Amino acid sequence: MKAQCQSSDRISTLPEDTIEKILTHMPIRDALRTSILSKKWRYCWTRMPKLVFDDNMFTRSSIFENDISKDYNFEDKIIKAIFQVLLLHKGPISEFCLCIVDAEIVNEIDMIILHLSWNKNIKKFIFECVEGYKLPCSFFSFQELEHLDLRCCKIELPHMFNGFSKLKILKFDAVEITAKMLQRFLTNCPLLEELTLHFAAGGMPWKLPTSLIHLRRLVLDVCFLIQDEISSTLCLINNSPNLEKIQINMIYNGEKTLANLPDIQEDYSGLNLDHLKELEITRFGIFATEMEFLKLIMAKSPLLKKARIELSILVTVGEENKMLRDLLFLPFPRASPAAKFSIERPKY
User: Fold this and answer.
1) What pTM was computed for the model?
2) Which domains, from first to last, does the chain contain?
3) Which residues of the chain carry a pLDDT beneath 50?
4) DSSP class of residue 103?
């Protein structure tokens, strides 16, 4: 019977690399519990290359479970849990995710990022914090970064910032950064392949000193009633000669209609999108500048295969019919007549 039990205890005989793969697919709170499975599993989690501290971990039930010291402040328990994991962790950390939206503990976040800066292997960093939290200088020492996703924080580049030379994917969501600093940031990320800017607080750059020659995918939130945002959008597109996909979400912040509409097609007649294959625009159709932008992209994309337009909920049936006539029946230059073109109503 004993021999039979030993032969059936397969979980204790798994190779270490298999154990590590299993742990990387588990929530961190569950990975910590695997130490009780067997001696071989004990502290295997300390070599996990991926650490994720998100909302799933930061629940009162998970923080206080099996903890008799429930009189501790909830925020203190969160910080204690993170520090314990980091202090016991032994191996390299290639991916780190931290989502904290509690203003009570932002002071400790600086210490967490400083600790991570000593690890020279972080390739993917996902961070969400309370609005207005300023990233410390130690963050800019993450020189191995390939994927950076920041939400609801503030960036002020240090004078000695030389960029992230290996960064390929950059996502900013409600990140506060000036247009000048964003220009400097992008210029110093020469290998960038994907760029996403949602609700960029501070504006986008009007010009770039160098082209983003590796950029393949561009995702932006844009208000086409603001001249600066129109210019910045077209600047980014014009400086990305190898774009394959553009996604634009049209936004409206209550601005008044432009008194003098820019002649987009004339001003950017030299635009070339020789590699663009897919265009997607959502919340489209309220302003004339949006239509001019669409026509410009269609006229400059000889390899375009798909153009998907999702209308704004503010577009009436009459306006939609007029739009269809303008796009489908009135002649305007299209570099790729074979492109599949669709106009849809929002599903919600």
Assistant:
1) 0.84
2) 92-203 (3.80.10), 207-255+264-348 (3.80.10)
3) 1-5, 7-8, 60-66, 68-71
4) G
